[in-house]
Design goal:
Elements: E1 5-15, E2 18-31, E3 34-41, E4 51-57, E5 62-68, E6 71-76, E7 81-87, E8 92-107, E9 110-121, E10 124-137
Antiparallel strand pairs: 1-2, 1-10, 2-3, 3-4, 4-5, 5-6, 6-7, 7-8, 8-9, 9-10
């Protein structure tokens, strides 16, 4: 079993001039030369179930798998259009991510990942996103 590090994750997503920022507790571990980042997103509808998110980071690709309130899979590789999907209780659709930039700067299990992509839904450009994910050591100053 790989060693798991508890971390603090700061996620900033920008779309059409609107920025959403979240700070979440998570875990990071390395397995088979890939870095895995796990965290839970709170329920958007205020319900009990959130969405468990797993990111797999390799040298040239980022894959995001989400389970729970929302089910989705997105992959990002600079210069490539990669297929994925999105499913919620209300809708489902196929999607393609066209990654413009992908930068992974890590020191061990801490660091920053930035990516920009165009999201295509059912053969139509839907939106352009810029995402920044920072992984920091968990703050132990308030531990019980």
């Amino acid at each position: 079993m790989p060693e798991t590090n508890r971390v603090l994750i700061r996620l900033r997503s920008r779309q059409d001039g609107e920025t959403v920022e979240q700070t979440l507790a998570g875990q990071v571990f390395v397995k088979d030369r890939s870095l895995y980042i796990r965290y839970e997103e709170p329920s958007a509808a205020g319900g009990a179930e959130g969405t468990r998110t797993l990111l797999k980071v390799t040298d040239d690709e980022l894959k995001i798998i989400r389970h729970g309130e929302v089910e989705s899979e997105q992959s990002f590789r600079k210069g490539s259009g990669l297929a994925g999907f999105y499913r919620s209780p209300y809708t489902r659709f196929a999607l393609v991510t066209h990654t413009r930039e992908l930068s992974v700067r890590m020191e061990g299990v801490y660091g920053q990942i930035d990516w920009e992509y165009d999201l295509e839904i059912q053969d139509a450009l839907s939106a352009r996103f810029a995402v920044s994910l920072t992984i920091q050591e968990e703050d132990h100053s308030h531990d019980d």
